[in-house]
Amino acid sequence: MTVTDWRDAPSDVVQPLLLAERTRVLDALHWDLAPALRLVEHARQRGDVPGLILRDRAGQPAGWAFYILANRTLQLGGLHARTAAGLRLVLDRVLASPEAELAQGVSCFLPAASQSLVSALERLRFEVRVHECLEASLVSWPPAAADTVPLRQLGDVDAPAIVRLLARAYAGERAARTFAPAGRIEEWAHYVGQILTGPSLGAWRPSQSFGIDGRDGSLKAAVLTTEIARQVAHVAQIAVDPEARRGGLARRLLHAAGAAAAAAGMRRVTLLVDEENAAARQLYAAFGFRPIGRWIHATRGPVPRRIGGVVVRATSRTRAA
Questions:
Q1: Of the segments 70-74, 175-179, 222-226, 277-281, which one has the largest average pLDDT value?
Q2: Are residues 7 and 29 in the same domain?
Q3: Distance CA 96, CA 91 (A)
Q4: For residue 252, how many C-alpha atoms fall within 13 Å in the half-sphere facing its CB?
Q5: Which residues, other chains included, contact 268 with Cβ-Cβ below 8 Å and sequence gap of 6+?
Q6: Of 221, 243, 266, which residue is a domain's last?
Q7: pLDDT mean across residues, the chain
Q8: How far apart are CA 153 and CA 124, in angstroms?
Q9: Is residue 117 situated within a structural domain?
């Protein structure tokens, strides 16, 4: 097998790979990646997004990956191969790329199509966390119960408040690494921006996103809902301020988001939950959510390099040199 730069490949070679990825994720997880993959293909054609194509002995594509160096982290946006050996080869070549040499860390958030992906990442000393993808029907969504907790619809102007809420809600939690690896406020701002304006997490639906304010006027809890496919809503985030927990706010928000999505014609709703979050899993089970697949978040530190037989690691001083 050989590995080539996907920026040198014509569109009629790359398009079937992206289409197959879209079909795999849509069929398994009801998540339509078409808008995000279109942006990737436009950027690839401009030469802005590096990537690799794995070819078999007949020269036919047998795997692929693309990656982006952003904020000193090499982010894998796609990774697929027919065989476990091909998957390992593609990963090895990604970590041998010039972009990986400049990175202080590597991360990915990918659908777990097989155990081979987890094994390949763990072999390269990635720390892997598994997130279950859960789904519930909106046709039989539970009816509204009497509740005096006031809700309000969220809008673009609430972005700063949402950022601050997420930073408080995830402070000290290992799960925060999936969204803001170092827990910095600018990382939370970038993540919220992806939900509100980017295609990778679906199209944001303000009419299905709600907040609960505290007596001091600050945002104490919020649910952010997107549309990830036709008639499929996705709860991208439910966050509750630590000071406001154990008051049923998450349940109230989830119910409101589901009811609004059903009223908008959505037929099903999905969400992701860390497999170690027992409390959240119990809440979602009460609403009829069931597992349909898995996503994995994997991270590792800089890739060691050898210069003159000496192992070195990427640091700010190394990059400056």
A1: 222-226
A2: yes
A3: 9
A4: 20
A5: 30, 135, 136, 137, 138, 231, 232, 233
A6: 266
A7: 90
A8: 44
A9: yes
